Each structure stands twice: as C-alpha cells, then as structure tokens.
What we know:
The complex is a heterodimer.
Chain A: H1 3-7, H2 10-14, H3 20-31, H4 34-52, H5 61-72, H6 79-86, H7 94-115, H8 124-138, E1 145-146, H9 150-157, E2 176-185, E3 188-197, E4 200-208, E5 214-221, E6 224-231, E7 234-240, H10 244-254
Antiparallel strand pairs in A: 1-2, 2-3, 3-4, 4-7, 5-6, 6-7
Chain B: H1 31-42, H2 46-57, H3 60-76, H4 86-105, H5 128-133, H6 136-144, H7 148-159, H8 164-171, H9 175-198
Helix pairs in contact in B: 2-3, 2-4, 2-7, 3-4, 4-8, 6-9, 7-9, 8-9
Amino acid sequence: MTCEEARSLLSAHVDHELDPVTDREVSEHIAGCESCAREVESIRALTAALHRGEHDLRAPDALRNRIEHAIGGWNSSDRAASAERRGRFLPRSATIAIPWAIAALLLLVLMPMAYRNSNGDSDFMPREVVAAHVRSTQVDHLTDVASSDRHTVKPWFTGKLDFSPPVVDYGAQGFKLIGGRVDYLDDRAVAALVYQHGPHSINVFIWPTDKAEQAPAMSVRSGYNLDHFSHAGMQYWIVSDMSADEIQKLAALLQG
Amino acid sequence: MGTGSEPGLRVIPGGAAPARSPAARETPLADPENRDDFQRIFLPHLDAAYNLARWLLKSEADAQDVVQEAYLRALRFFRTFRGGDSRAWLLTIVRNTAYSWMSRNRGATVPADFEEDQHRDPAPPVDLELIRKADSAALRAAMESLPTEFREVVVLRDLEGLSYKEIAEIADVPIGTVMSRLARARSRLKIALQKLATTGGKR
C-alpha cells in the first residue's frame, strides 16, 4: 500500500471502520511509515480533545418543557390523563407550570371550537394544511408517484389509503395533474394530489368525511390561499400561492 | 383497475418523510398510550437531538426551534417507526428539519452530493502538542469554521459516537462518502486549530 492510498484510510482506521483485510494493510503501512504514524497520532489526539472538550451539549430544560407541552398538546383529548404520567420526566419546577400551561392550552383549543360552527374546524387545520404544502415544496418532495395519467395515479393509492380518492387531470382547463403522494393530516393518512398551474404548484388534500356537502370556504394564511369544501363524501383542502380566483376555478372543477 | 401496480408507474423515493408502508394504516394510533410510548422512546434522545441541531445551526435559539419542530414531525410519523435504532431515526428527522430550516431562513441549499478533490486538503505536519492542549474555545471555533456537511459528520462520529453506517443513513450518503468527509473534516479541524494558534488564539 502506498502512502497516498493509506492517507485517505487513516481516519477510518482510527475509528475501526475498515474491513479486516484493508485494516491489516493499513496497519502494516503505518508500522513502516513515520509520517502516517504521526498522522494517526494526531487524529487520535483530535478525537480525544473533542471528547473531553464537553462539546456534547445538553438540551436546556426550557426546551424539554416546550417539547413536553407540544407533544401533550398535539390534540386536546387525553391531555389531562397523560399529564400525570408525563410528570415523571420533568424537573420539579415544571410541575407548577404544567397545570397552568394545560389550562391555557385547553382555553386556546376549546375557545375557537366553541365559537365556530359545528364542523369542528379551528385554526388548526389551515395551519396544518399550509405546513404540509410548504414542506412538500421545500424539500422537493411534491410527489411519490409522478404522472399526469390518472390511471396511473389512482391505482397507486390502493393499499396506501383506506379510501380511493377521485383523481382527475384538468390539463385542458389549465390545471395539469403532476402526480400524487400520501401525506398525513388530521391524525390520518390522506391523499395529496399535485397540480401545476403556470409557475404555481397546488396541493389538493383529500380524505373522507361524514359531513354532507359543504360549500367552499376560502381563507388566507401565511400568504397562501386555501379553499376547503366537502363533496361526495370527501373533504378537500386546496392550497397554493396562486390567486384566490384560480383556486376557486379549480375548486369548481373538483366539485364536478 | 384497482390492482396495486401498473406498467409505467414511476415511484420517486421521497427523501423527506420516513418511508410509509401500507400496513401503517392497520395500526391506529391509540392516542394517549402511543404518546406515552413516543415520549418513552424519544425523549431520552433529546440531548443528542439538541446537540446535533445546535452544531448544525450554530445558534441555541434556532436549535431549540428546530428540535421542537423535529419532535412534532417525529410524532406525526411515529406510526411509521418500525422499532430499531430510535436515536438514528430521530436524528435523521432532526437533520432534515435543520436543513430545511436553513434553506427557509438562511437561503442555504441542501447539500448536494458534492465530492471535492480528494487531494485538496493535503495534511501538513501538525503540532501534536497543540492539538492535545487545545482548549474548548479553540475547538469550538475550529468546529464552527467547518462547512456544515463536514461539521455534521464530526458531531455524529466524535461527539455522538455513531457508526459510519448509522451516519450514512442519517446523512443519506454512501458509507464511502462518510469516510472521506470525516477524514477531510478532521484534517481541516487540525489545520484550523493550527491557524487559530498562530493568529494569537483570540478566542
């Protein structure tokens, strides 16, 4: 083994991550090469310094509490029941803060529900829908199945969802079907259909509802336009950065 | 129609979310119990999650936001967790959340499979004593001078003690890439320590 070949392997040699044969060859090289031996020494010194330098940071207690609350507050039910069990993970100071936080969270969650109509929507769903949309565009994960052919997209959902979402391409009307994926909203797996309109990506989230027909309701959140309606046993959330007019056009198409 | 597969079906593997399986929907989330399981399995990894986020983002406040977001994401995908290494599973989500946070807030791009020239960082003779005596401020400054992708492998290996295989899964790169990145990251760290020492070690 030449010095150059060995050089790139020294770090892995120190970590015992080489296969036995290569590791033996590297060891033999080091035994006869002063500069590589020095290099190994310096790598060992470095990893030891990193170990003792206390760079392994501890999460602040405040963060621990925030996460406990966020997890517990995922939805309002059963929070009280699990609060007690949660207590054992927490520092003593938090046991006073928690009942207050629970009370505040309950207020936050229940108040809007009491004031809204019976469909049970709070601000929660629009926020979730926008978050899902943003995530899908951000991480370049718009589609799991990419196809403009609804005969490809629709069967793809079979076995991934416990319902069969309606899949139609509206390319002729300016809304081209790009593909689909399974997303997770409202505590369940939902269908996400992706359409393209000019430069705009559109997510249409679909899942079953027992509500009767429900007229479209537009809203705006974080600069995104949303439209929510129910049709033929399915509820729809449309979200995109395109204009409200265009969203309404697509909503009308989806409602057949 | 209605069969599971069709010719011409093109499935793009998603890098973002953990893989879902059809069986996932058959295990409904028994709510409070599952949340307890989630806490029991993942809260012990909070320090590791924070440590990784803090080093990736170089900011305590940002790290806290990202870790919280990552935990909520993890909870959301909890039903796709099939046992196995829960720390690696969580750290994968923390890492992805951190990178999307950076691209959202700092305009940084998610690292592509960049492979630099292997010989670009020739190892100069390094003063062993200097490394041995490096104080934690110097080490920290050296760490923070590394590009994120290099810092990431050092954190996962030298601070968290993960195997190359685990790091490869978390960073979504081949093991060979982990190996070469780590080698070059360490080499750069040594150079940075040397530079810090010669410029008077202001930190």
